[in-house]
Amino acid sequence: MVLEYPFTPPTAVDPPSEWQELRATCPVAHVRTASGGEALLLTRYDDVRTTITDRRFVRNTPAGGGTMGGFLADDAAHLRWRRLLTRSFTARRMTALEPGITRIAHELTDEMIKSGSPADLRTMLGFPLPVYVICDLLGVPATDRERFAHWSDRFLNLTRFPAEEVQQSGRELWDYMRAHVRGKRSAPGDDLLSELVTVVDSEDGRLSEEELIFTGQALLVAGHETTANMIGKMLAMLLARRERWEQLLADPNLVPTAVEEVLRFDANLGFGTHRLVTEQVEIAGTVVEPGTTVLSSMPSANRDERVFTEPDEMDLTRSPNPHLTFGAGYHACLGQSLARVELRTVLSVLLDRLPTLALAVPVDELRRREGLLVGGLEEVPVSWS
């Protein structure tokens, strides 16, 4: 039987019932995607982790230059790029950004409070904060923040905008980053991109202009849209049950583990990770032939009963918490340290500034953003007194 995918969840923040059923009875399921193609859907933790870390599963992404950065389709080139970037994109460097992120969070919270209750937290805080942070990281002038937000919103959306508009945004962003990289070559600053322009590794050499342009583009798109949506989802999940928010108010030291649990608990992560099988492999007793497309459901894996105790309960003290939201192995998200700092900072600021914060609508009235490669909510209406 071929199932229609993606599944329809009961609410914007809850998981579809199919995940638990498939984990129990059909961990390798045949599905038909929204584009009409067929694939195998994996829902168990160990199987999903294998597709992320096993090099027999490669990114199912078309090669090409320009805005796609075709060099990343080549596994060796991709690893070289990651090695060079990892030298500068460290957890220590991301933590050093925390004072600036805190300042931005307070400024945006000031504006939200000034606008009055109720307000859309996604628009007022979740959406602008990450793009402001990425612009600071890349040395992009504050005057260009709105352009970056515009490009990012279109670049990761599959259905909201016409294809030509999406492609045009990609071209504009690529052209902007080319000029920006060249500017950093001639007049470097103290930002990450300036450091990457000058870094030379004895084994891997120097990042090319195309790699630098792609790096700036990738940091914007991945670092903005995913975190922007995660901020809204985090608050929606925590405010959906009042006792969760009250627990954090009573013990703000729980913020780090609460953020990890929110990342694990998120049932709205997007369409799943696409991988192409390069040689015959067996998954959960099913033989998979080369050329097969495999979809890995990370949010389902994050609720696997074989790994997590009471996985459908949000435990803000859960530790350890080996969720797969940021991937694993050599495909682990390079920006995860930055995302964690942003989420922890925003949550701490809101707990401090708006302890009476509450959802302004019932949870079942929240709406998913449609067409995004990453999951999100259309609005996160909140109120306070």
UniProtKB/TrEMBL annotation:
<protein>
    <submittedName>
        <fullName>Cytochrome P450</fullName>
    </submittedName>
</protein>
<keyword id="KW-0503">Monooxygenase</keyword>
<dbReference type="InterPro" id="IPR002397">
    <property type="entry name" value="Cyt_P450_B"/>
</dbReference>
<dbReference type="GO" id="GO:0004497">
    <property type="term" value="F:monooxygenase activity"/>
</dbReference>
<keyword id="KW-0560">Oxidoreductase</keyword>
<dbReference type="GO" id="GO:0017000">
    <property type="term" value="P:antibiotic biosynthetic process"/>
</dbReference>
<dbReference type="InterPro" id="IPR036396">
    <property type="entry name" value="Cyt_P450_sf"/>
</dbReference>
<dbReference type="GO" id="GO:0005506">
    <property type="term" value="F:iron ion binding"/>
</dbReference>
<keyword id="KW-0479">Metal-binding</keyword>
<keyword id="KW-0349">Heme</keyword>
<dbReference type="Pfam" id="PF00067">
    <property type="entry name" value="p450"/>
</dbReference>
<dbReference type="InterPro" id="IPR017972">
    <property type="entry name" value="Cyt_P450_CS"/>
</dbReference>
<dbReference type="GO" id="GO:0016705">
    <property type="term" value="F:oxidoreductase activity, acting on paired donors, with incorporation or reduction of molecular oxygen"/>
</dbReference>
<dbReference type="GO" id="GO:0020037">
    <property type="term" value="F:heme binding"/>
</dbReference>
<keyword id="KW-0408">Iron</keyword>
<dbReference type="InterPro" id="IPR001128">
    <property type="entry name" value="Cyt_P450"/>
</dbReference>
<comment type="similarity">
    <text>Belongs to the cytochrome P450 family.</text>
</comment>
